[in-house]
Structure formats: structure tokens, C-alpha cells
Design a protein that fits this description.
The chain is α/β, with parallel strands linked by helices and 318 residues long. It has 11 helices and 15 strands. The protein folds into 2 domains: 117 residues, ornithine cyclodeaminase, domain 1; 183 residues, 3-Layer(aba) Sandwich (Rossmann fold), CATH 3.40.50.
Length: 318
Amino acid sequence: MTTQLPFIPADAVHELLPYADLVDALAAGHLLPPADVRRTVYSPEGADEVYLGLPAWQPGHALGVKLVTVFPANPAAGKPSVQAVYVLFDGTDGSPLATMDGTALTYRKTASDSALGSRFLSRADSRTLLMVGAGGLGPHLVAAHRTVRPSLTEVLVWNRTRSRAESLAAELAAAGVTVSVVDDLDGAVARADIVCTATMTRDPLVKGALLRPGTHLDLVGAYLPDHREVDDDCVRRAAIHVDSRLAAVEESGDLVIPITSGVITEHDIRGDLFDLCQGRIPGRTANDEITLFENGGGGHLDLMTGQLVWERYQAAAR
């Protein structure tokens, strides 16, 4: 007789992953030996849609894989652009443990990844957060940043389609956030202490010349080599950090493009989250330093997140 594999739905994944707890779990996960990871990203020729396969394996401990589709036109039909499923396996005998909603896992993991970077790199007295992009990740990124920086008292939202910015602002306001929709992106960039970008743009939106000293850039959206959210001035002026070097130098256009053109080199990347969490490099080194965190993701982060979901799911079932 076979036992049915548990499926953990989206609402349970969200409930089991409070941002503060997941940020701490990701920090702790970066103190362990890195998982072996692979990354498959591709689109059929001429297509805007993308498939990602993100496996990660910690021998003797756990392994898992996230299967993701990105269909940019979906929001117009009321569907999420990013959809995924995650499968977790036992690391000692290879038996499947659970499947879980990968979209919810992605939202929580991505936002907490950015928040962990912000914990090291943004100013502790940051007041204004600019959210560039009003897709499904928007509310999670805002909430996670506010978790690690409770000093944030104002949120600005910009989106190419204003109605979507208004929808996100209404959602944030209902949760008690002081929020405004902005039409002047350049002016908002110049006001912000933290600029968080999560868009599908191929052309840079954020101009580095406008950044005030002390600004922190959190770049989430440019996860393909031909996508870019910030211009050359941003990477020239900033102290650059990444969550994972693999994704940053091979897939994330905000770094791939300026590295390829010679604006910066790989040596300009100061370090990744393993370096930061293990104290091998400092985070922010001066109050007026401009910092940049490239959130490229990776299967190791999904594995850390999936393990926390499974541990808490089991504890709740006892």
C-alpha cells in the first residue's frame, strides 16, 4: 500500500513562512556547506515565456527541485505571471517527502532573500522605500523589507501601467502601510533610501546619476541576460553584492550586460550571501555608500525555504 504524497497549498506555505522567520532561516542556511545546484533557463525561439528548472542537493540531508513557468501576459487574464511547483526529497534515501505550491514559496523566498541582503546593506535609518513594479512579488517585497527595516515609514509605488500601481498601493494601505503612487520615476528614485525593482523590462528604468549617497538598490526582476532594470551609472557607483554568483554572472542582465561591455568586471562583485553571513566580507561600510544587491535566486535558496515549510508542516500535523 502506497502513502499519498502530501501537497502543501499556497495558503499554508504563506502561513508557515513569516518573513522574519524565513530571513533568519536563510541566514542560518548560509552558514552550512553550500548545496550542489544546477540551473536550466530557456525559452522557445521568439517566445516571451520562460521555463526554469532549479534543483539543489545537500547530500545526506535533502534535495529538491522547483519547476517554474513565467508567462508575462498572464496578468491581463487575471493569472499570475510566475507559477511553480516544488518537490522535496529525503537526502538519505531519496524518497519523496512532499510537493508544495512553488509560486507561494517563490514569493516568500524571493522577498526574504532581498530582505536578508537589505539587513546587511541598507542603512538602518532608511525611511523611504520605492517599489518599482507592481506585480505579484510587490506586496511581499515591501513587507519583507519593512520587516528587517522597521524604520521605513513611507512606500512609493511606480509601475508602467498606473492602474496596477494603484491596486498594489490599495493592498498595502489596507495593511496599514503609508503608501503613495508616483508617476515621476526619476523624482522618486532621487527621494528613496531603498529602491526595489521587480519588473520584466529589457531597458533600464533606474538612472544611477539620480541616486543619493547612502541609497540601497535591491534588484529582483532582471533574471535573464537580456533584461535590465538599472543603467551603467548604477553599477559604476555602487558597492555590488549578490545572493549567488552563479545566477548573477550568467543569468542576471543587470550584471551580465555591464560585465560583457567592460563597464565592470566580475572582480567588482564584492561577495555573495555566503560571504556576508559568514563574516568573510563586511556589508555596508559607510553611511554614504551606495549599495547594490542582485537577487538572482537559486535552487539552494528554494531548498532552504522548502525545508522550513516541511519542518513546520510536520510540526503542525503532530
